[in-house]
Amino acid sequence: MKLILLGAPGAGKGTQAEKIVEKFGIPAISTGNIIRAALKEGTDMGLKAKSYMDAGQLVPDEVVIGIIKDRLKEKDCENGFILDGFPRTIPQAQALENMGIVIDKVLDIEVSDEAITKRLSGRRVCSKCANSYHIDYKKPAVDGICDACGGELIQRKDDAPETVQARLAEYHQLTEPLKDFYGKLGKLVVVEGQEEVADTTALVFAALED
Ligand code: ADP
Ligand code: ZN
């Protein structure tokens, strides 16, 4: 099964990707997480991406396309994968096609800009393992500490309110046209993001069944 998760920043792609990983045993590939890991390690690619990311802009296509090309060659992708955060532009989608990759379904999680703004301002992420929490909706057992690894929870720089508005603008301008792109190919399934994670997951699983 080869899947793409589409949706605005903060629509819950990462959270739903985890559920799909658990149920179907295929890896989730998040370009955002790969870039943040590179940044932490201080690699050239990480440094190149940093200024874009911090400003809420998309990293140049050639950079993320290179990341995906390398990642999809790894053995764990043999039986399928979920792409979380790629493609985000039409040229990225075309690059996937040029790699000869045939996607089965594209799940689009729809959440209003207003709800996104609320969600991202309260999001906290683990500084060690990248698990994601929310100060109201998904609290860790101990304030400020990751349930999974004990790491410190921090706010992502690009979750600052001004940056969130820039990310939403990028999303509407560059990423949303992918709905039409995959709609025309008959691959798009739209899921309305719910307030409760489990409710969205139920819709996602139902969409994957038929
Ligand atoms: P979110 O979905 O919450 O925006 P991500 O972790 O997926 O978070 O992405 C964070 C940032 O990483 C983006 O704002 C962008 O700068 C960069 N990025 C991730 N994936 C891509 C991509 N496919 N194309 C361009 N930039 C990307
Ligand atoms: Zn952690």
Structure report:
The chain has 210 residues and is an alpha/beta fold. It is built from nine helices and eight strands. The protein has a five-stranded parallel beta sheet with strand order 2-3-1-4-8, sandwiched between helices. Strands 6-5-7 form a three-stranded antiparallel beta sheet. The chain is globular. The chain starts with a strand and ends with a helix. Zinc ion (ZN) binds next to loops.
Protein topology:
Elements: E1 2-7, H1 13-24, E2 28-30, H2 31-41, H3 44-54, H4 61-72, E3 81-84, H5 90-98, E4 105-110, H6 113-121, E5 123-126, E6 132-134, E7 153-154, H7 161-175, H8 177-184, E8 188-192, H9 197-209
Parallel strand pairs: 1-3, 1-4, 2-3, 4-8
Antiparallel strand pairs: 5-6, 5-7
The site of adenosine-5'-diphosphate has 20 residues, from α2 and α3.
